[in-house]
Design brief:
Blueprint lengths: L3 H32 L6 H34 L2 H24 L24
Helix pairs in contact: 1-2, 1-3, 2-3
Length: 125
């Protein structure tokens, strides 16, 4: 088991998952901040998200997906390895949205508790 084929498969899983998750969490955080009027203005928030957050999030999500898939692929089948990588990505994404997206110490003029009205109530933050 293992070898070059497993490494290529992990890369082919990690890069698309890193792109999708970094863009998805960036979009959600931007919408949360915009809905709750967090920050100085939208251009300052977008500057932070595009220049700082996106590259870091891409690296974190890609590495997490690659490592999870590669480790799980050694002991299980491909479907379970992919499922575990997706589960790790969702857990990291939810944590990032709860940590960066919801500004606990920021005054909440439009959103009670800085959680927007459109956020599903069955998903805790």
């Amino acid at each position: 088991m293992g070898g070059a084929g497993e490494s290529r498969t992990s890369r082919s899983v990690a890069l698309p998952m890193g792109i999708v998750m970094s863009l998805g969490t960036c979009w959600l955080i931007a919408n949360i901040w915009s809905s709750c009027d967090v920050g100085v203005n939208d251009s300052a928030n977008s500057g932070f998200l595009v220049i700082v957050y996106l590259p870091l999030a891409f690296v974190v999500f890609s590495v997490a997906a690659g490592v999870t898939h590669s480790v799980m692929a050694k002991w299980t089948n491909a479907t379970l390895a992919l499922g575990s990588a997706v589960a790790v990505e969702i857990a990291i994404g939810w944590t990032v949205i709860a940590w960066i997206g919801i500004a606990d110490d920021y005054p909440a003029p439009f959103c009670p508790g800085n959680i927007p009205a459109w956020w599903p109530h069955f998903i805790p933050i």
